[in-house]
């Protein structure tokens, strides 16, 4: 910076920011302190009917004066904070402070960060022919802040001095951008859809108005917002209350609040330190699912949540869900826009062979055989087999016994398991002593020769419900025929049985 004293030119920067409301501390006094004949407790209704010569003391008691707003705007007195997503605007002046003219003045302004560089102004192709003593060249620059951390506004000028020599003037102005929002997301698989919850916390120095929060899904999903963004009541900043203050009657008064009241009623206000939550439903697209998109990792991750990788499992790649698009405005209406990085689900363990329920008949009647369709899917790239589907009577009986104990032995068979060979466990006997639950009809195991790679094989077994009521289909195991290696077990499914 010391070398700048030898130059004829010098840069000056002024940030262009919106003004703020000028506030003044209102005077608080009693009317009797001024004039004894002044009406007490002046009100807006009274103010509208008062003559123009109403005493000064009475006018100060009106509600408008108690707000402390003078009706003026105050220009920024400092550089201020620059937030990520805002548009940085500045007024740049290069002035000739010497007593000699300079010629062929080229000016270039760049905004530099650790990872990028953007040229905001460059008149090198057509430099200024002359700058007389005291003359200046002014221009404005604008750039959207897309990175956090330090920024450097690099201003440089190349000009011809009074002696005919070419001189180069560099000048740097530094500032740092801050994070306006803290975005927290979490997702959960419900059925075949992914529900994504996003919580946005305001970490700025004032309230903000959330204009738009949308989700841009990846090519494998479609997104739908569930409900509206909600902020905690304890944090303050109710949009309906703000609309009522601005418009008097608020949004329920048939639009009496005017355009500003209607706008505030539809855009949630998030106070300093407050937060707003948004929920999105992501549905898997049919075409992407048929093409083997990356959504399989979501289902696998939900199916083994909280479990470690076991034998016969492999890990899938993370699944991209999409990005959040966030638009908001500051206290004085300054717009800002942010887009998050791609939200992904973590890579999860996926089993080599999976056993699932493919179909049940619409109606199941007690004491009548009914078919159960099972699906065995091979997720590997090699042929697997032979395989055996068996029924673990011990596991089924233990689960059925626990459910019966929890139910108090009401004889309904709720939670009863599948029992092989037509035998019932102790927990499958109700108060009447009869057999309950689901039993196999026919062979007690099924042999599969092989399952082709990346394909599924369907197996049909026959079951019989011994009693009506709600029963649980469980205890179905898939294992290797030669080595007995267990690959998967059927998830619990409820079966509703009608009386014969």
Q: SS-based structural class?
A: mainly beta
- The general outline is elongated
C-alpha Rg (nearest Å): 37 Å
The biggest beta sheet is recorded as: 6 strands, mixed
Mean pLDDT: 75
Helix content: 10-25%
**Discrete helix count:** 8
Taken as a percent bin, the fraction of beta residues is 35-45%
Low-confidence stretches: 1-5, 56-62, 232-255, 288-313, 394-435
- Beginning-to-end CA distance, first to last residue: 96 Å
Total number of β-strand segments? 34
Describe, in plain words, how this protein is organized in 3D.
There is one protein chain. This protein is mostly beta strands and 500 residues long. The chain is built from eight helices and 34 strands. Strands 4, 6, 7, 8, 10 and 11 form a six-stranded mixed sheet that branches. Strand 19 and strand 20 (335-339) form a beta hairpin. Helix 4 (239-247) runs antiparallel to helix 5 (258-266).
List keywords for this structure.
500 residues, mainly beta, six-stranded mixed beta sheet, five-stranded antiparallel beta sheet, 12% helix, elongated, disordered N terminus
List strands and helices in order, with pairings.
Layout: E1 9-15, E2 20-23, H1 44-49, H2 56-59, H3 63-66, E3 69-74, E4 82-83, E5 87-96, E6 102-112, E7 117-122, E8 128-131, E9 136-144, E10 149-160, E11 166-178, E12 181-190, E13 193-202, E14 208-217, E15 221-230, H4 239-247, H5 258-266, E16 269-270, E17 275-284, H6 286-290, H7 296-303, E18 313-315, E19 319-329, E20 335-339, E21 343-345, E22 349-351, E23 353-359, E24 364-365, E25 369-378, E26 387-391, H8 393-407, E27 418-419, E28 438-440, E29 446-448, E30 456-465, E31 469-473, E32 476-480, E33 486-489, E34 493-498
């Amino acid at each position: 910076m010391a070398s700048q004293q030898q130059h004829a030119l010098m840069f000056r920067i002024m940030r262009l920011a919106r003004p703020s409301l000028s506030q003044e501390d209102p005077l608080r006094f009693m009317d009797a302190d001024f004039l004894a004949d002044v009406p007490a407790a002046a009100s807006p209704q009274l103010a509208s009917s008062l003559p123009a010569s109403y005493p000064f003391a009475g006018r100060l008691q009106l509600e408008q004066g108690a707000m402390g707003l003078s009706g003026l705007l105050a220009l920024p007195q400092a550089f201020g904070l620059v937030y990520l997503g805002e548009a940085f605007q500045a007024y740049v002046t290069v002035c000739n402070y010497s007593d000699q003219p300079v010629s062929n003045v080229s000016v270039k302004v760049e905004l530099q960060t650790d990872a990028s560089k953007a040229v905001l102004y460059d008149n090198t192709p057509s430099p200024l022919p002359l700058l007389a003593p005291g003359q200046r060249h002014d221009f404005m620059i604008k750039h959207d802040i897309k990175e956090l951390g330090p920024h450097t506004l690099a201003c440089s000028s190349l000009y011809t001095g009074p002696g005919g020599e070419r001189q180069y003037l560099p000048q740097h102005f530094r500032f740092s951008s801050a994070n306006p929002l803290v975005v927290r997301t979490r997702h959960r698989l419900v059925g075949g859809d992914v529900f994504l919850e996003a919580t946005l916390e305001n970490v700025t120095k004032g309230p903000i108005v959330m204009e738009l929060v949308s989700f841009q899904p990846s090519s494998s999903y479609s997104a739908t917002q569930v409900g509206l963004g909600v902020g905690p009541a304890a944090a303050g900043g109710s949009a309906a209350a703000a609309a009522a203050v601005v418009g008097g009657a608020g949004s329920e008064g048939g639009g009496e609040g005017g355009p500003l009241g209607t706008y505030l009623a539809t855009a949630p206000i998030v106070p300093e330190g407050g937060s707003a939550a948004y929920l999105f439903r992501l549905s898997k697209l049919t075409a992407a699912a048929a093409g083997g998109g990356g959504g399989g990792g979501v289902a696998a991750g939900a199916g083994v949540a909280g479990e470690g990788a076991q034998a016969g499992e492999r890990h899938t790649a993370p699944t991209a869900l999409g990005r959040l698009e966030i638009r908001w405005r500051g206290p004085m209406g300054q717009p800002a826009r942010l887009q998050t990085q791609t939200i992904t689900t973590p890579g999860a363990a996926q089993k080599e062979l999976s056993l699932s329920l493919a179909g049940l008949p619409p109606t199941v009647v007690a004491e009548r055989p009914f078919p159960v369709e099972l699906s065995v899917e091979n997720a590997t790239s090699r042929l697997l087999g032979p395989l055996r589907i068996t029924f673990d009577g011990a596991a089924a009986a233990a689960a059925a016994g626990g459910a019966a104990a929890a139910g108090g032995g009401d004889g309904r068979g709720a939670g009863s398991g599948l029992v092989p060979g037509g035998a019932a466990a102790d927990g499958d006997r109700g108060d009447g002593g009869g057999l309950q639950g689901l039993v196999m009809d026919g062979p007690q195991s099924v042999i599969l020769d092989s399952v082709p790679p990346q394909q599924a094989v369907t197996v049909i077994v026959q079951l019989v419900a011994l009693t009506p009521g709600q029963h649980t289909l469980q205890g179905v195991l898939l294992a290797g025929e030669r080595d007995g290696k267990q690959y998967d077990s059927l998830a619990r499914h409820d079966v509703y049985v009608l009386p014969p």
